[in-house]
Amino acid sequence: MSAPFDREAIAAFRFVDCGFDPDTGVARLVYAFDDGPELVETVTVPGAPFALDEAREAAAVQALRLLHLIAGVSYYKAAVPEDIRIEGYAIDGDTAALLEDVYVHGLGEFAYRNGLDLHGRIRFPAAGQASPAAPALGLREHALVAIGGGKDSLVSIEALRTAGVAQTVAWIGGSQLIRACAERTGLPTLNIQRQLAPELFDYNRQGAWNGHIPVTAINSAILAFAAVLLDVDQVVFSNERSASYGSLIEGTGEVNHQWSKGWAFERAFGEHLQRRVAADLRYYSLLRPLSELAVARQFARSDRYDAHFSSCNRNFHLLGERPANRWCGVCPKCHFVFLALAPFMPKPRLVAIFGRNLLDDPAQIPGYDALLEYRDHKPFECVGEGRESRAAMAALAARPEWREDAVVQRFAGEIAPQLDAGELAVAPLLVPDEAHRVPPALWERLRAHFAA
């Protein structure tokens, strides 16, 4: 029987080891606190056995180490000790700086909710010289596209299809909802399994620190590793520009629930992959130039996925026959997706997707106030900026089919008069931004597609 877990007594977190078996496709990521038991996570990539030449094998080692270091955040947070040790290999200063950013900012909401200050506390040990620049591997032109079951990844997949880019849709874990969406695309699929160390759940029951982690950073590292194994040159996510903006908390400042979906992470991680793993491995978000409203407008152009998609986190594990089973109707994600789609979609179609009209329910007013940043801060969820919600609501207030609904009517009467009219226009929010990592030739093909 191992000793009870006492987060206050732990002095060190150890990155013990990582390894990969190309015959089975199983990667092992090993961690430990102090001299406690080894915590072994496994990641299984379908397609084994993998035959790697010398250059791809070296790149796979680098990608696996990066995955080991980033996925460790799931375990490190249980005690957040100041002493971090990396055994078996060394990292340079650039890698240490990237990891400190991922841990400090990616655990921002976790720290806020638990009353912790991680700034200056998290230091990764940099040892040795900077690694030589990674060579190009001659990876084949193919996109590994992360699919999450919501509208955003489906917009990316259809845009790549329009541009003629060969793609495989990939997801991590056992969600049946994501599988149904992936199969609905009619494209090749890749379902990667991630098995957390079971001891972590025991630690949580014994009082470990717990909370939100930068899961997009972990999934990005998993897909980058898979890309090297599968000989593909692009890892594509679907994070729009509003992901870079957090919630403004009085007395605390900005806390971004979705930091690892933001531009700062995407740029740093993408550059690191090209420097340290493979010069021709591109990591980018196809939707980075777009606002949430622009993404919603793209999604609304096709009803192909109406009966399959869901952005609701609370109800995500349920996949029922009726649309209402895929949307709880009371969480911030449901509130926001309904509002974002409403200006671009016929009302009967939208109500049929959700199984109810969320904007004609007075009980939903507090939830919408948070989205509007009216008397509340933006929710800790992957939702658009307050200005997007305000502009969408203003657009609905001008339309006969929406303006009598309880939430819209209240906005028009009580909130809109306090706002500048310039703040309430949808059109400026539909203009693509120029800060992104989309390959230039692809962006030229897609710019008109997104702007139309």
Q: What does this protein look like?
A:
It is a single chain. The chain has 452 residues and is α/β, with parallel strands linked by helices. The chain has helices spanning 54-71, 73-76, 93-106, 108-114, 151-163, 176-185, 199-205, 215-230, 263-276, 292-300, 332-341, 347-354, 365-371, 386-397, 406-415, 440-451, and strands at 12-21, 26-33, 39-44, 83-86, 140-146, 167-172, 189-195, 232-237, 247-249, 253-255, 282-285. The chain has a nine-stranded mixed sheet, sandwiched between helices. The chain has a two-stranded antiparallel sheet with strand order 9-10. Strand 2 and strand 3 form a beta hairpin. Helix 5 (151-163) crosses helix 16 (440-451). It is globular, with a radius of gyration of 22 Å.
Label this structure with key terms:
452 residues; alpha/beta; 2 domains; 9-stranded mixed beta sheet; two-stranded antiparallel ribbon; 11 strands; 38% helix
Q: Which spans have pLDDT < 50 for at least 5 consecutive residues? A: 316-324
Mean pLDDT: 90
Strand order of the largest sheet: 4-1-2-3-7-6-5-8-11
Computed structural class: alpha/beta
Q: How many domains?
A: 2
- First-residue to last-residue Cα separation: 64 Å
Range of strand content: 5-15%
The helix fraction, in percent, is: 25-40%
Task: Give me a quick take on this structure.
Helices cover 38% and strands 14% of the residues. The chain is α/β, with parallel strands linked by helices. Helix 5 crosses helix 10.
Which helices and strands appear, and what pairs or packs with what?
Blueprint: E1 12-21, E2 26-33, E3 39-44, H1 54-71, H2 73-76, E4 83-86, H3 93-106, H4 108-114, E5 140-146, H5 151-163, E6 167-172, H6 176-185, E7 189-195, H7 199-205, H8 215-230, E8 232-237, E9 247-249, E10 253-255, H9 263-276, E11 282-285, H10 292-300, H11 332-341, H12 347-354, H13 365-371, H14 386-397, H15 406-415, H16 440-451
Parallel strand pairs: 1-4, 5-6, 5-8, 6-7, 8-11
Antiparallel strand pairs: 1-2, 2-3, 3-7, 9-10
Helix pairs in contact: 1-8, 3-9, 5-10, 5-16, 14-15
